[in-house]
Design a protein that fits this description.
Layout lengths: L6 H68 L3 H32 L2 H19 L12 H8 L2
Helix pairs in contact: 1-2, 2-3
Length: 152
């Protein structure tokens, strides 16, 4: 009996071919899984980077608020007022820079909803900083400002 016509040879060939096909499919699945895992890792790292940048902006904002309080509470002396006001402005700029970095990361991620939220936060922070008017809305030589200072 020729080898090609034996039932045994046909079964071995069929099983060998099937096994080879399963190995090829498994290798393709492992490659796809590796790529998916890399994309997932990148997504998580970018999300953590945005969260870290926003947290840093939050900390800067808290310091900025403290400097605003210093302007109101300790700013009766013009030298102190100028020092605390400059510090307030420096922290305000730091908050904006950190939020811009977070927005750039969100833009890079392609997350339009997150980008919209960060841009809204930046806009509100800028608007809040501009609302103070003349050096924080408090002038140590102005009677109304001194009256307002007494209420704190």
């Amino acid at each position: 009996m020729p080898l090609l016509h034996s039932l045994r040879a046909q079964l071995v060939g069929l099983l060998g071919g099937g096994l080879l096909l399963v190995l090829i499919v498994a290798a393709a699945c492992f490659l796809a899984l590796g790529q998916g895992l890399g994309q997932y890792r990148s997504l998580v790292e970018e999300t953590i980077r945005v969260a870290t940048q926003v947290d840093a902006a939050n900390v800067e904002f808290k310091v900025q608020v403290q400097e605003w309080k210093n302007v109101l509470i300790r700013g009766a002396n013009p030298a102190n007022h100028d020092r605390y006001w400059r510090s307030f402005q420096n922290h305000e700029a730091q908050v904006q820079q950190r939020l811009e970095a977070a927005a750039a990361t969100a833009r890079q991620m392609g997350d339009t909803d997150l980008l919209r939220q960060i841009e809204g936060l930046r806009t509100e922070h800028q608007r809040m900083g501009q609302a103070g008017g003349c050096q924080g809305g408090w002038n140590p030589g102005h009677a109304a400002s001194n009256e307002a200072r007494g209420s704190f």
